Amino acid sequence: MPECLEAEIWRRDLLALIGRRIDRVEFDDRVADPALAAVEGTTIEGVRRHGKVVLVDTSGPVIGVRFGMTGRVVVDGASSIDALAYSSRRDDPAWDRVVVWADGSETPALRMNDPRRLGRIETDPDLRGLGPDALGIGLDELRARLRGRTAATKATLMNQSVVAGLGNLCVDEVLFAAGIAPTVAAGSLSAAETRRLQRALVTRLPAMLRAGGSTHGVLDPSRRAERGRCPRRGCVGALRVIRIGGRTTVYCPEHQLA
DNA sequence: CGGCATGTTTCGCC
DNA sequence: AGGCGAAACATGCC
Fold first, then answer.
1. pLDDT tens per residue across span A170-205
2. What is the pTM of this model?
3. Is the CB of A168 less than 7 A from some atom of nucleic acid strand C?
4. Which of A21, A231, A247, A254 is catalytic?
5. N or C terminus of chain A with fewer C-beta within 10 Å?
């Protein structure tokens, strides 16, 4: 489930850990950097996010978490997001990839749980390859990032080196709101389209965040599965399903113009 | 059983 | 050289 919105929700959960001293860490070294052991004995000092990456600052190394498709975070035994669309509903301890105990508590302060093991936990991660964060990106910045891009707008927006944080659901939602077909080359968007795209990013993403995350848009998972009529008020189109960049893409050809 | 899934990386081709 | 699309990865669910 993780796109930038879930990463932001978990970042806020993790704020509860600031000030705690890490007693012990256990991890699966197939997905976690062995250097993670160095966080034992350090104190958690802050939690940041860039795109889909959550960064936990300690008095030692920075812990960088990428969630893959099915990763999630459990803080003090509870998770803010329990409806795991496209993942497992269960929280099986066998899928814990990192467990952190702190301040003498028997309940882990932090668990990174990931059935499919597509997530990664790094220490002192290098984020230089990421574009600017999608939440709150400015118009000039967006225009500059899309200039000259020949790939489909949807594929370009999902490229983390162009803009960081957008995944399949958020991109479909934003393009739907902006009235832009996902297939158009990103570099050939008009000035007006780029403006609508930027407005959609800075309005729809925070709205989805307040509503609960990537699955809380107009094109939520149930509507994606049902397909059917375009949910936009006054639009007479029907939703269409195609594949772009290997991902299932839902859009309305009636009001999302190429 | 077959197909699908909110992601990232790698490989081959322009 | 740099950008792009397809495939691979790993596992649960419907």
1. 999 999 999 999 999 999 999 999 999 999 999 999
2. 0.94
3. no
4. A247
5. C
